[in-house]
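Data's thin. Show one?
=====
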Amino acid sequence: MNFEQEFTDKLIQLAECRIDTAAWQNWWAQHSEEVKKRIGSGDYLFLDCVSSAYGLDTYMAKCQRGAERYLTKKAIPFQHATRYEEGAERERKLYAEKLEQQRKMEQEERQREYEQRKRRRSVLLEYQIPEANKLKSGLRTLPADADELELIKLLIEWTEYLAQEKYKEALEMFLLDENNELDWTPALLESAVYTYGCPGYTREEAEREFGSADYKVTSILDNPDKEEIIAGIDISSDYGWMGREDLAVIHYDHVPLNGKISDLTARFFVRRISDEELTLAFIDLHVM
């Protein structure tokens, strides 16, 4: 049997589902370079299928389609069979079920973590800013071993500055990250608030562009959704984009606007400034 006949026989076996995966892969590994010399690149690519995440039958169904495409072009008769495709359908269904199960498990895990975080932070529901802190100005620092509760207290105080429209004082509480795309100033921070996360517009421009420029940060302390806001603050390590002195990244979602939870997010780095102290570095205020 010459190679052309052997190749045709293998394709007919594929089209009719009469060859198992191992036999086909073994034959293809030995002869694919010879096939490549004899047929067009398009036909070759249809046959040269990569393995499938779903399973072996899905892989074979792909190869079968390539075989049928070539045989049809060459007017070579074959009897189409459905075994590979039926198996592929089962594999896709099982794969989808596995993904759904994994999604549910991940969702349940996130919910457990959220509930644990909510319990840990419940002590902050009664937090009131000390009078001495209300009078502080300039950079605020914490001991290097400060926990998440101390970090969140700083964020609460920062929010209260914004609620009082003390934008200069709010910016001075923390460092400004040197890699910011924007040069944050009190005026720019204020515009990020009244435009709901689109800094740089004047109030008149925002009114014309968005139809409103009356958004205002309001206090967490008397917000009915205080528990959700505090529990939703994410403090996590992300070594992909933190600087060398950064210990964590904070995503402070749901910054309260006009007395309600919003989609406004403030981002900060938790930054070491000495062996004894850390502070926050403001990144931005935006809508996710």
User: Anything to note?
Assistant: The two ends are 65 Å apart (CA to CA).
